[in-house]
């Protein structure tokens, strides 16, 4: 393959490559434009590979940059390159795999992987044989370069390499890689393990055939001198624990002893990889059996791993106490994601959850961006947390002495790790900790005044983990002092402490709810003062704390003196923020909670807020249409539309009928019709990919639209009614339980609409009933969706019993079991009335499952009198139909508590 560059062209490209390394933004922009121009010339890519592989006299950064620009060109335009150019690039890559420079070898490896990904491995048949052959080279650089490239290929193409499409090259590669486990160079040994590790999780067939030999080889390398080798050994064992526990079980004592040693490794990367082992082991059924003897060794190691290192403290600026006057850097403010409204049964057992997801344990405190990645401290804390959930109180005799030594230590770093450990065990060991909390909580409250900011901040988090217990005790003893100290920390002179205190206070608000009402004025004055004190990042967290307070105390906030404290600073922020300012989102969320809580108290503010929400939705829809029609437009960020829809929901829920005039004078129904049909966008270009992944999902637009539809139905149905023929088909299309939150809100909205629509619902039942019956019978459906579905089916039966009753046998059993736990409320009332109507129409439909109906009606504490009579009539009718003898036999099947309850409640 011969191609020679022209001298002046080569010099021009080298000059551009050197310019592009300039830190000056204007220079970089000019370079970017020149590169775009050069991309018009097909052989530009030949020049780039030439600089990378042939110009050995040129400096390494310039050569490497040439390769990276070529990589981007192949990724973006690879399919349009002429075949001979691609072949030339492939040939040169394989020739340069053994370059003397590690940087160039790595760049060539990245380039090879990009070509393989872009064109498919099947279009480069000589690649794998060539690289595997190079592994045998006596030249270290060739061997290492080939292994480096293979490692990237294994990472990107694990499944393809084990497929029949390529004739299963892994059958040759796995045994070959294992030969290099004993290579005399540590980097080669490390590459060999890393390559094979990529095939563990997928249980690749070729690896499973050699699994015992692989495990034995890992054991042989367990004490390797090289930290990268040890790290890869640990990583392999952690993954094997998940997929081939059967093979590790006979060696488990030795593996645990090895991991205890490696968790204390002098290299942090090895220690972190080994710490992952305890997280994985905790998920296995055998954890308790195999780990019990080692817990006394493991617990102190994990607590030691929670200490901040000297480097951590420097990165976290942990020695700087007062920084609240220092403005935040924009890059330190992480993207935040709005959680759309999800309707659950209001006073049900589950509370207001949507998809019932647990918050991830973040190792105590989510340290700032310099340490936000997963590290040894967080992994150690998470491991103690999950193990506390496995061992429960049994681990306390081991952990309590460690806590005693660390919590009261004179060195602040050790004391801080003890406070973190105490927070980590909170969930798993709560029952056993209760006897110690009367002593520990006051001590922790005193730690909120510690002179070290990092101790104050972690104490906020740990106290939040015990908030549930604090709230259940006499308020003067614990809640009041904790609240007072947390409010002082909200006004701390250290930004990290402010953040931790705000988050902890939000947790306390959720636990305490209306118990905070006596202290509202003091709380509001503190939070409002923080508005004037906070820098950018913490201001966003403060909005959340204010919104959570409104959610927690509800209508108790609707007092003139509270409104006068709270609203002026919020409205001031509202007036300052432009429509395209991201800070508007958390403020809108906060106002949504406040509007719901204040109810009529929000009336003086509702007009401008309502109009701005409508404007935000309109702007986003128009931008979305422009983007779809013209590739030159940017894809809009739909989060502002979602947040605006949710704030309108908050207004509708809070203002109820008072929102009618605002709705009447706006085009909200037309906008809602468009939002309900928001489609998943097609990704038209690479630049849109990022927007696609980082923008809010279109599913959230629909989720929020259905929430607003339900709330407007309750508040002013006269404006929703004319759109029923358009809305009902869309609701039916969104009854897809694969998208739980969308499905949940659509289901809830249907239930609210049919209660207002009455018999008119008849013409729409065929659009939704079949889907609702599928959902209620679907295994593993979340509790919230099941309850909402059951209530909506009951409500459809209430307004159209003749149409729904024939389907009773298809859903009655699941309906009864879904609603047997929810508390007495309006939704339960309408659903049970519907069931009674349906049974009256089709009594035979309930016969085979009548015991489930009996169980469900027994869940009522105090049914309304007319509903009580309806239920009693059905029971007596059933008893009369089957006769006394059969009835007695039937009741004998019941648990005694159920039959006693039915006798007491319904006199049967």
From TrEMBL:
Importin N-terminal domain span: 31-99
Q: Tell me one GO biological process term.
A: protein import into nucleus
The superkingdom listed in its UniProt entry is: Eukaryota
- List compositional bias (Acidic residues) regions by residue number: 354-364
> What InterPro entries does the record tag this protein with?
ARM-like (IPR011989), ARM-type_fold (IPR016024), IMB1_TNPO1-like_TPR (IPR058584), Importin-beta_N (IPR001494), Importin_beta (IPR040122), TPR_IPO4/5 (IPR057672)
Q: Which PROSITE patterns match?
A: IMPORTIN_B_NT
Q: Which Gene3D superfamilies match?
A: Leucine-rich Repeat Variant
Q: What is this protein called?
A: Transportin-1
- List the GO molecular function terms: small GTPase binding
Q: What is its main location?
A: cytoplasm
Q: Name its species.
A: Glossina pallidipes
Q: Where in the cell is it found?
A: Cytoplasm; Nucleus
Q: Which GO terms describe its cellular component?
A: cytoplasm; nuclear lumen
SMART domains for the chain: IBN_N (SM00913)
Report any Pfam family annotated for this entry: TPR_IMB1
User: What are the protein's UniProt keywords?
Assistant: Cytoplasm, Nucleus, Protein transport, Repeat, Transport
What start-end ranges are recorded for coiled-coil regions in this protein? none
């Amino acid at each position: 393959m011969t191609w020679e560059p022209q001298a002046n062209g080569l010099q021009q490209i080298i000059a551009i490559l050197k310019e592009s390394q300039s830190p000056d933004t204007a220079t970089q922009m000019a370079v970017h434009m020149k590169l775009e121009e050069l991309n018009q010339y097909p052989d530009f890519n030949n020049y780039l590979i030439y600089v990378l592989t042939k110009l050995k006299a040129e400096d390494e950064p310039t050569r490497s940059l040439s390769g990276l620009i070529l990589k981007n060109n192949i990724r973006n335009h690879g399919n349009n390159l002429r075949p001979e150019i691609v072949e030339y690039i492939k040939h040169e890559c394989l020739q340069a795999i053994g370059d003397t420079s590690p940087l160039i070898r790595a760049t060539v490896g990245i380039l090879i992987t990009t070509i393989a990904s872009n064109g498919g491995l099947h279009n480069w048949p000589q690649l794998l044989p060539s690289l595997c052959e190079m592994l045998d080279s006596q030249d270290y650089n060739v061997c290492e370069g080939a292994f480096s490239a293979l490692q990237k290929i294994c990472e990107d193409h694990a499944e393809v390499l084990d497929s029949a499409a390529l004739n299963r090259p892994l059958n040759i590669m796995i045994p070959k890689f294992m030969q290099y486990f004993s290579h005399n160079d540590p980097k080669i040994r490390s590459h060999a393990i890393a390559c094979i590790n990529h095939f563990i999780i997928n249980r690749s067939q070729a690896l499973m055939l050699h699994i015992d030999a692989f495990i034995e080889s890992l054991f042989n390398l367990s004490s390797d001198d090289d930290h990268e080798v040890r790290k890869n050994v640990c990583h392999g064992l952690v993954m094997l624990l998940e997929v081939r526990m059967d093979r590790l079980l006979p060696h488990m004592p030795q593996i645990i002893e090895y991991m205890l040693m490696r968790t204390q490794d002098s290299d942090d990367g090895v220690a972190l990889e080994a710490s992952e082992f305890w997280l994985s082991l905790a998920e296995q059924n055998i954890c308790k059996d195999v780990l019990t003897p080692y817990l006394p060794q493991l617990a102190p190691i994990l607590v030691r791993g929670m200490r901040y290192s000297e480097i951590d403290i420097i990165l976290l600026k942990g020695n700087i106490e007062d920084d609240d006057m220092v403005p935040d850097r924009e890059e330190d403010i992480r993207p935040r994601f709005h959680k759309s409204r999800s309707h659950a049964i209001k006073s049900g057992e589950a509370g207001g959850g949507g998809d019932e997801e647990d918050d991830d344990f973040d190792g105590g405190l989510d340290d700032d961006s310099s340490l936000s990645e997963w590290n040894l401290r967080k992994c150690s804390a998470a491991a103690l947390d999950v193990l506390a959930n496995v061992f429960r109180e049994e681990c306390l005799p081991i952990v309590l002495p460690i806590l005693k030594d660390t919590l009261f230590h004179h060195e602040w770093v050790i004391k801080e790790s003890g406070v973190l450990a105490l927070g980590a065990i909170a969930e798993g060991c709560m029952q056993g900790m209760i006897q110690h909390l009367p002593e520990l909580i006051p001590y922790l409250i005193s730690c909120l005044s510690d002179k070290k900011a990092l101790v104050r901040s972690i104490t906020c988090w740990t106290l939040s983990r015990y908030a549930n217990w604090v709230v259940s005790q006499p308020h003067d003893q614990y809640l009041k002092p904790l609240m007072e100290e947390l409010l002082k920390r909200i006004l701390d002179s250290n930004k990290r402490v402010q953040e931790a205190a705000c988050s902890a206070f939000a947790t306390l608000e959720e636990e305490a709810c209306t118990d905070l009402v006596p202290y509202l004025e003091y709380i509001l004055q503190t939070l409002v003062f923080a508005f004037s004190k906070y820098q950018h990042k913490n201001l966003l967290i403060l909005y959340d704390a204010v919104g959570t307070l409104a959610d927690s105390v509800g209508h108790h906030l609707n007092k003139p003196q509270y409104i006068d404290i709270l609203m002026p600073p919020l409205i001031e922020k509202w007036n300052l923020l432009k429509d395209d300012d991201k800070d508007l989102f958390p403020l809108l969320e906060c106002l949504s909670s406040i509007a719901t809580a204040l109810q009529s108290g929000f009336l003086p503010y509702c007009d401008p807020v309502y109009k701005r929400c409508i404007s935000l939705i309109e702007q986003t829809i128009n931008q979305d249409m422009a983007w779809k029609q013209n590739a030159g437009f940017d894809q809009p960020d739909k989060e502002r539309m979602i947040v605006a829809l949710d704030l309108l929901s908050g207004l509708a829920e809070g203002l109820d009928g008072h929102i009618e005039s605002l709705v009447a004078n706006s085009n909200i129904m037309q906008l809602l019709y468009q939002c309900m049909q928001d489609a998943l966008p097609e990704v038209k270009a690479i630049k849109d990919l990022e927007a696609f992944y980082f923008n809010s999902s279109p599913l959230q637009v629909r989720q929020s639209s259905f929430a607003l539809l339900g709330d407007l139905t309750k508040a002013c149905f006269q404006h929703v009614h004319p759109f029923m023929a358009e809305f009902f088909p869309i609701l039916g299309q969104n009854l897809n339980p694969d998208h739980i939150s969308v499905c949940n809100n659509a289901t809830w909205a249907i239930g609210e609409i049919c209660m207002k629509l009455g018999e008119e619902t008849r013409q729409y039942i065929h659009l939704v009933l079949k889907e609702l019956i599928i959902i209620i019978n679907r295994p593993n459906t979340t509790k919230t969706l099941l309850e909402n579905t059951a209530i909506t089916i009951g409500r459809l039966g209430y307004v159209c019993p003749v149409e729904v009753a024939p389907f009773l046998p298809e859903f009655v059993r699941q309906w009864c079991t879904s609603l047997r736990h929810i508390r007495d409320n309006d939704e339960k009332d309408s659903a049970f009335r519907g069931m009674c109507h349906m049974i009256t129409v089709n009594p035979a439909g309930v016969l085979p499952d009548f015991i489930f109906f009996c169980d469900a009606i027994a869940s009522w504490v105090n049914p309304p009198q007319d509903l009580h009579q309806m239920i009693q009539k059905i029971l007596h009718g059933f008893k009369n139909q089957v006769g006394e003898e059969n009835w007695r036999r039937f009741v004998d099947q019941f648990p005694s508590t159920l039959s006693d309850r039915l006798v007491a409640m319904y006199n049967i």
